[in-house]
Specification:
globular, acyltransferase activity, Phospholipid/glycerol acyltransferase domain-containing protein, 398 residues, two-stranded antiparallel ribbon, Plipid/glycerol_acylTrfase, alpha/beta, 51% helix
Length: 398
């Protein structure tokens, strides 16, 4: 709902043209635009055929453009585009994960739209894993929130919006611009859920939790509530969004060393300045790096009992921590840091952690730790150990 000169007005999708995903009737034109984007074609060549791009650059571009044209010539819908993506994602997951497990989906209704709010460890793969397990279990695919700071190239924006991403304006500078952008985002998300009946994904915070401490930024909840009609109770509005907390855990984080480096610099110098295109490198590393076992856990939808922003944020934190499935690497790191094995359950099988059952995993983790520069190892260990500490803190609070 928008408030105009003559009172409240209800938006149509055209009000969100600058942030919404592309529609079916925009797919062909967008694909043709991508085919004619030399920067995009060059990026494809570097990714798929790096040797060819270096040794035979003049030939690489037309060859790649021709191959891509054949690949997409019959694609004329968002669903068709996502079917192409699905085949590549399946191959990628087969190569970069040893096992993907899921829990909690059986309690959700496939006919209902949900707002999935997850912890945030990986820029691209967090929503990809949520989307994947939903798709594999017969749920509708997601509309995914993505910051405009990651869309510095026109072809990146086109690709993301073809894949049902909607844009979060993080480039606004003045308080007025920020509020206007937040109101539009809030209205778009409400419209998507209530009118389009679409599933949505957004992270619990802006930016990854590089220290693995999954704490919701209350500003995310405040943004969601901006579209609430004045006469509607806060709890009722939150319940209408069908918020479902999601916990994603990775056995190995492909960006662990880079995160450890950044955390160390922040601890020693007070701040960290990203290099140009560093986010792009993190995305590539997250997609192509080995992740081992991955678990996606879906929590329970929120009810009208949550009457404040703080209550919603606390409920998110609690469910995300409670439902987080610990990996052997988490327990091994905790043991190294504290000198004793944690008394916790772990894995999709929910078994009590016992050191003697994980000798091979311990050797592999210790080799990974040894490969990390000595100055960063303390932070490296904390990245893996912190989820155990969060679990234990929650247990003690109970």
């Amino acid at each position: 709902m928008f408030v105009g000169f003559f009172g409240p007005t209800y938006p149509t999708m055209s009000d969100f043209d600058d942030i919404r995903p592309y529609n079916d009737d925009e797919v062909r034109a967008t694909l043709l635009r991508l085919l004619n984007d030399n920067e995009f074609i060059d990026a494809i060549v570097r990714l798929k055929r790096p040797l060819l791009s270096r040794l035979m650059a003049p030939l690489a571009r037309p060859l790649a453009r021709s191959a891509l044209h054949k690949e997409i010539r019959d694609v004329d819908s968002v669903e068709g585009f996502q079917a192409k993506i699905e085949s590549y994602l399946a191959k990628n997951l087969n190569e970069t994960t040893s096992k993907i497990t899921v829990s909690g989906l059986e309690a959700l209704d496939k006919t209902k739209p949900y707002l999935f709010i997850s912890n945030h460890r990986d820029i691209a793969m967090d929503p990809a894993f949520v989307n994947w397990v939903l798709y594999q279990n017969g749920f509708k695919t997601l509309r995914i929130a993505i910051g405009d700071n990651l869309l510095t190239k026109p072809f990146a924006s086109d690709l993301m919006r073809l894949n049902k991403c909607f844009i979060v304006n993080r480039s606004a500078t003045s308080p007025r611009e920020k509020l206007k952008a937040a109101k539009k985002l809030s209205a778009y998300m409400h419209h998507s859920l209530t009118q389009d009946k679409s599933n949505l994904w957004i992270a619990q915070r802006e930016g990854r939790a590089k220290d693995s401490l999954d704490i919701t930024n209350p500003a995310i909840i405040s943004m969601l509530a901006l579209n609430k009609p004045k006469q509607e109770a806060f709890g009722d509005y939150i319940a209408s969004l069908n918020i479902v907390p999601v916990s994603i855990s990775y056995e190995y984080d492909p960006c662990d060393e880079a995160k450890a480096r950044e955390l160390t610099i922040v601890a020693e110098q007070g701040a960290y300045e990203k290099a140009e295109h560093e986010d792009v490198q993190s995305i590539a590393r997250g997609i192509t790096g080995q992740k081992g076992r991955v678990h996606v856990s879906f929590g329970s939808p929120f009810t009208a009992e949550l009457e404040s922003v703080e209550a919603v944020a606390a409920a998110l934190d609690r469910q995300i921590t409670e439902n987080y499935v610990l990996q052997p690497t988490n327990c091994i790191a905790h043991t190294i840091v504290h000198g004793c094995a944690p008394n916790v359950v772990m894995g999709a099988e929910v078994k009590l952690y016992k050191e003697q059952d994980h000798k091979a995993a311990m050797a592999e983790f210790e080799a990974r730790l040894k490969a990390c520069p000595t100055a960063w190892r303390e932070r490296f260990l904390s990245i893996y150990a912190n989820p155990v500490a969060a679990k234990l803190a929650l247990q003690h609070a109970e």
